[in-house]
Specification:
alpha+beta, 6-stranded antiparallel beta sheet, single chain
Length: 598
């Protein structure tokens, strides 16, 4: 797990070092550089595999290729053995080196051979060609920009925005889309000219031109005839294989454990596969939203070495500028606990397994209920509007011609559930869920691994009939059946849990008063994102609890992080390569993790 950056079409060693330094939180262990007149690569390393010899950039036998990789190639050992039999010589034990030798034999087709999470850049000097690529599900990020015949790329946008010649203009159509979805779907960003490489894609820069190609996309739809019993057995086998592959590491791997089904399934498999007690970590809030008691019971059931802590919401506003600097994108409230949990876990481990991705595979969100096979006569437009309501959209009247949701739901003859799951896996999963996971964990140099998103497991689940995912109105039907016997009944039959945040905190006096420094009628009028008549109700008292509190909390928090984003990345004369300081109350943030008493 690392940070990568670079450019092609010119030479500027000082700029390369500034870009690389902006990513030091992603790789605190070391840095590395390659420079030439045509291309330059910068690298920050978090040592996970081949601790002594895996320094990058890597090169092949004759020095004609250079490579930098962010991520992990889980099947590298099998690939290495195969390549060695074909005569390739390896100079390190790094998982990244297999990419160089695969490229020598197969070119861009190598991507079909890789299993893992990754973003990489490969400079082919004889051809004067730069290849950059991203993993199938978008677990690892990659940004790029073109300025004439100059090309830039980086793991995080801030490294590109450090270029003083790059104009930082807010992309208004992207703001509209953000307000509609509460995240930003697709390849565009909030800065004009700055783009994300889509998941499952590679880009070739050659002769001053960049071309994007796709090598893998989710294909959701019932193509497999299978009994429920066989589907359960096959899922169990593939899931165990996925967790086993995600444990490949030269350092201990822990897990983030909530009180929910998804992380419980991961930890249950870890406990079965490891010859030691896995370390697990949980965060909680005092009150009804506290997940610690159930997580504690799960840890006892699985025999883990468990740690937990209580989060004080008073820190949130003080630390928000730091979080948004890492996020580089406005987002609803759910990233907050993960930021602190990652800090807590990083004190003991460098890598953790998490339960992200199961909801997008098995229809785990409430907003997906309108697409249940139990509602065959519900009109398409009604399904879409209910889904948008479930997203807590601020601007539901999005332009129809620029709406990826409308396009997804009307694209083909697939079932409504297959269409919306395909949309979720292509947009909400990489552009919101995995985005916040990557940024909040890498803020503390912690690698997060997602075994539910092993692409072979994803392909299997995507081929199953709708009724095995959403049975009537029971979400994650097959997952519950497959994990029966592995996790307790109270989790199997429980409601969805995760590392969320209590939305009621927005309406607590201290938080709201502090946040009003950033979000108020004056700032919203000056920005002009929305008519004031549309936002005044949000700034008033909630007038209710439950769904209304949650909805307004999401919307207000997005506006708050959007304001902070502009102050950090759009308004100032220059983007800072260093994060804002943490709040004063964070000097003694938390005690060192201690085992939870049994």
């Amino acid at each position: 797990m690392c940070g990568i950056c670079g450019f092609a079409g010119f030479d500027d060693a000082a700029l390369l070092r500034r870009m690389t330094a902006a990513l030091c939180h992603r790789g605190p262990d070391s840095d590395g550089f390659f420079t030439s007149a045509d291309a330059s690569l910068g690298f920050r390393r978090l040592s996970i595999i081949d601790l002594e010899g895996g320094q990058q950039p890597l090169t092949n036998e004759d020095g004609s290729l250079r490579l930098i990789l962010n991520g992990e190639i889980y099947n590298y050992r099998a690939l290495r053995e195969e390549l060695a039999r074909c005569g390739h010589r390896f100079s390190t034990g790094s998982d990244a080196e297999v990419i160089l030798h695969l490229y020598e034999d197969e070119g861009e087709a190598l991507l079909a051979r890789l299993e893992g999470m990754f973003a990489f850049a490969l400079w082919d000097a004889p051809r004067r060609r730069l290849l950059v690529a991203r993993d199938r599900l978008g677990i690892k990020p990659l940004y790029y920009a073109e300025r004439g015949e100059r090309f830039f790329f980086a793991s995080e946008a801030k490294a590109i925005l450090l270029n003083p010649d790059f104009p930082r203009r807010l992309h208004r159509p992207a703001v509209e889309r953000l307000l509609h979805y509460l995240y930003l779907p697709g390849s565009e960003t909030l800065v004009e000219g700055l783009r994300r490489l889509p998941p499952g894609c590679w880009l070739r820069w050659e002769r001053g031109r960049a071309e994007v190609h796709s090598y893998w996309q989710p294909q959701v739809g019932a193509t497999r005839r299978i009994t429920e019993a066989d589907a359960v057995a096959e899922f169990r086998r593939r899931f165990e294989d996925a967790v086993r592959s995600h444990l490949v590491s030269d350092v201990p791997v822990g897990a983030l454990l909530s009180g929910g089904l998804d992380s419980a399934g991961v930890v249950a498999q870890m406990a079965r596969l490891l010859d030691r007690k896995p370390k697990t970590f949980t965060v909680g809030f005092a009150g009804a939203d506290d997940e610690r008691p159930l997580a504690r019971r799960l840890a006892e059931r699985f025999g883990t070495d468990h740690r937990e802590f209580e989060l004080d919401p008073a820190r949130f506003v003080e630390d928000l500028p730091r979080m948004v600097w890492h996020l580089e994108e406005p987002t609803p409230i759910s990233f907050l606990p993960l930021f602190y949990l990652a800090e807590f876990a990083r004190r003991e481990v460098k890598a953790v397994l998490i339960g992200e991705g199961a909801d997008e595979l098995f229809a785990g969100y409430r907003r997906l209920l309108p697409f249940s096979p139990a509602l065959p006569l519900l009109p398409r437009g009604a399904r879409r509007r209910l889904y948008e309501f479930g997203l807590h959209s601020i601007a539901p009247n999005h332009r129809a011609g620029d709406d990826p949701l409308r396009a997804a739901l009307g694209a083909d003859g697939r079932s409504p559930l297959a269409a919306i799951l395909d949309f979720e896996q292509r947009t909400a999963l990489p552009d919101y869920q995995l985005h916040r996971v990557d940024r909040m964990t890498m803020a503390w140099s912690l690698e997060a691994r997602v075994p539910y998103l092993d692409h072979r497991l994803v392909e299997f689940v995507n081929s199953l009939p709708d009724e095995l995912k959403l049975r009537g109105f029971q979400r994650k039907y097959l997952l519950r059946r497959a994990l029966a016997g592995l996790v307790p009944e109270e989790v199997l039959e429980g409601t969805k849990r995760g590392f969320g945040a209590p939305f009621r905190l927005w309406y607590s006096g201290g938080f709201r008063e502090a946040a009003s420094r950033y979000v108020n009628e004056q700032t919203l009028a000056e920005r002009g994102w929305l008519p004031l008549d549309a936002v005044r109700p949000l700034l008033g008292s909630p007038g209710g609890r439950g769904w209304l509190e949650r909805r307004r909390g999401s919307q207000l928090f997005l506006l708050l992080t959007l304001e902070l984003y502009c102050r950090l990345f759009i308004d100032p004369p220059q983007v800072s390569a260093a994060p804002p300081p943490l709040g004063k109350s964070s000097a003694a943030r938390m005690a060192a993790p201690q085992p939870v008493p049994r």
